Amino acid sequence: MGDRTAVMLLMLLLSSWCLTAVTGNRGSGARGGEEGEGGEGSGRRFVLEESEEVVKAEGGEVRVVRGYGTAGRPAPMHIGFITMEPKTLYIPQYLDSSLILFVRRGEARIGWIYKDGMVERRLKMGDIIHIAAGSTYYMVNTGKGQRLQIICSIDTSESLGLGPYQSFFIGGGMYPSSVLAGFDIGTLTAAFNVTTEEMDTILGAHVRGPIVFYNDRAPSQPRSLVSYMQFKQMQVQKEGCAAADDEGEEEMQQEENKRWTLRKFLTNLFYNRKKGKKRSAPNAYNLYDRDPDFHNSHGWSIALDEGNYAPLGINDIGVYLVNLTAGSMMLPHVNPTATEYGIVLGGSGIIQVVYPNGTTAMNAEVSEGDVFLIPRYFPFCQIASLIGPFEFFGFTTSARRNRPQFLVGASSILRTMLGPELAAGFGVTEEELRKVVEAQKDAVMVASWTPPKKRGKREDEPLVIRRMVDV
Ligand SMILES: *[C@@H]1O[C@H](CO)[C@@H](O)[C@H](O)[C@H]1NC(C)=O
Ligand SMILES: *[C@@H]1O[C@H](CO)[C@@H](O)[C@H](O)[C@H]1NC(C)=O
Ligand SMILES: *[C@@H]1O[C@H](CO)[C@@H](O)[C@H](O)[C@H]1NC(C)=O
C-alpha cells in the first residue's frame, strides 16, 4: 500500500508543483490530510500545497513539501524541488536522508562518494539517481544557459528529525559553514598537518551560499585520478548506483582496503562454510583473536559486523574496538549509517563532536569507565592523551558495514573529492585547497601532537554519560 500511495502522492505533487510554478506559491494552503476543509469528500484532501523554502542562494533554491504520516507515525518522505541557475554548483554536502533525484529539466553532473570511492555521472532530463544518506555529493548544472530542475524524494527514515532534512556541508566558509569548522583549531592543524594560517586559507574563505556560480571545467578535461589512485583504500567505482544497497559477500570481495583482502576473504569463506553446513547455536567470537581491520604506528582498530559474526545481524548491532597510542588522533570522521556508543576501557583522551552547522557540540575529556555516544552523521574525532594508550570499545546501531567516512587524511573524502568542485565549495582555488588537503600523508590515525589546552569541561556535555560503569 505504501508504495502506491507514495506514487500517487508524487504524481499529485508533480501536478501541484507545475501549478505552483505558474501561480506562485500559495504558501498557506491547507495541509493535506488534515481533517476539516470540507471533510471526507474534499476534492483536494491529499494535495500537499504548502512548500517551504529550505535553501535560497544566488545560484538557486531548494523548496520542500513535507509529507505526513498516518496513525501518528512520522512522514516517510518529503519531496524536494531543487532549482539551479545556469553555471552553478551545489557545493559538497551530505544529508541525513537518502535521496532519489529525478532530473525534470536540464542537465547535470553529479559526483558522490560511493563505497569509499568517488563516482561521477552526467544526468539528463528523465534520469533518476540514488544518493545514500551520509554520502557526500555535489551537483553542477551543465546545461548551456539552462536552468536545472530536480525533483527528489527525501527519505526520512534515517533522519535526525531536525527540519525536513539536515545538510552537513563539507565545503563552506562563512555561509554555509563547513563541518570542519566545528573542530578545535589545534585538532585541525594536527589532523591536516598544516599551520593555522594554511588552515585559515580554506576555512576563512567567503562562500556565497550553498549554490554558487561556477564555471564548469571543459567536458573533455579528464579528472585527475592520481590523488585517489594513490591510496589503496580507495577505488574509483565503475559500477552504477543500481547496486547501491547490496551488502554482504559480494561487497566483502571488493573490499577497498587491499591489504586486508585475503584475510577478509578467508574469514568470509570460513563463515559461509559454517553457515552452510551446521545449524547449531553460534559460538562466541573473540575480539582479541581477530587481526585489526586497520593498523598503523598510531594504533589499530577492529570493527565487527554481521558479515564477520552473523548473530550481530539479529538485532542489527555492530561492535568495535580501538587502541590509539599515546598522543595519537583518530582523524575527524563520520558514521553515515550508525550511531556509535563508546566505553573507555583504558587511558584517557579527548572526544570532539561537531554539530551539522559547523559548531562544536562537544569537546570533552574522557577516561576509563566513561560512556559516550556519537550521533549518526555528526563529525567527530578521538585524541589520546600523552600519558598512555587510549582504548575504547563500543557498539554501533547497525550490523551492516558502517564505512566511516574520514574527512581528513590520506583516505579522506576531501582527498577523494579533491577537484574544482570541492575548491569552489570552499571558495578557494584548487591549488590552495590541494596544499592543505594533501599535507597529511597518514590515514585514519595520525601522529602525536600537543592536545589543545585543557579548557575545562564544557557545561553541556550532552553526549557523555560519566562514570556509568566500572570497567
Ligand atoms: C593497546 O596498545 C598498547 C600498546 O600501545 C598495549 O599495551 C595494550 O595492551 C593495548 N590494549 C589492548 C586492549 O590490546
Ligand atoms: C548550531 O546548532 C546547535 C544545535 O542545533 C545550536 O545549539 C547552535 O546554536 C547552532 N549554532 C549556530 C551558530 O547556529
Ligand atoms: C607533514 O608535513 C611535512 C611537510 O610540511 C612533511 O614533511 C611530513 O611528512 C608530513 N607528515 C605527515 C604525517 O604527513
Helix content: 10-25%
Task: Name the CATH homologous superfamily of the largest domain.
Answer: Jelly Rolls
Got a strand count?
A: 25
Class computed from helices, strands and strand pairing:
alpha+beta
Known CATH architecture of the largest domain: Sandwich
Mean pLDDT: 77
Low-confidence stretches: 10-39, 220-278, 451-462, 465-471
Pfam families: Cupin_1
InterPro entries: Cupin_1 (IPR006045), RmlC-like_jellyroll (IPR014710), RmlC_Cupin_sf (IPR011051), Seed_Storage-Functional (IPR050253)
Keywords: Signal
Organism: Cocos nucifera
Can you describe what's shown?
Keywords: Signal. This is Vicilin-like seed storage protein. The protein is of the alpha+beta class and 471 residues long. The protein folds into 3 domains: 51-169, Sandwich (Jelly Rolls), CATH 2.60.120.10; 179-205 and 221-270, no CATH class; 290-409 and 444-471, Jelly Rolls (Sandwich), CATH 2.60.120.10. It contains 9 helices and 25 strands. The strands form 4 sheets. The chain has a 7-stranded antiparallel sheet, with no helix packed on it. A 6-stranded antiparallel sheet has the order 1-2-3-10-5-8, with no helix packed on it. Strands 4, 6, 7, 9, 11 and 12 form a 6-stranded antiparallel sheet that branches. Helix 3 (196-203) crosses helix 9 (430-437) and helix 8 (420-426) crosses helix 9. It is globular. The termini are far apart. Residues 10-39, 220-278, 451-462 and 465-471 have low confidence and may be disordered. Bound molecules: 2-acetamido-2-deoxy-beta-D-glucopyranose (3 copies). The site of one 2-acetamido-2-deoxy-beta-D-glucopyranose has 3 residues, from loops.
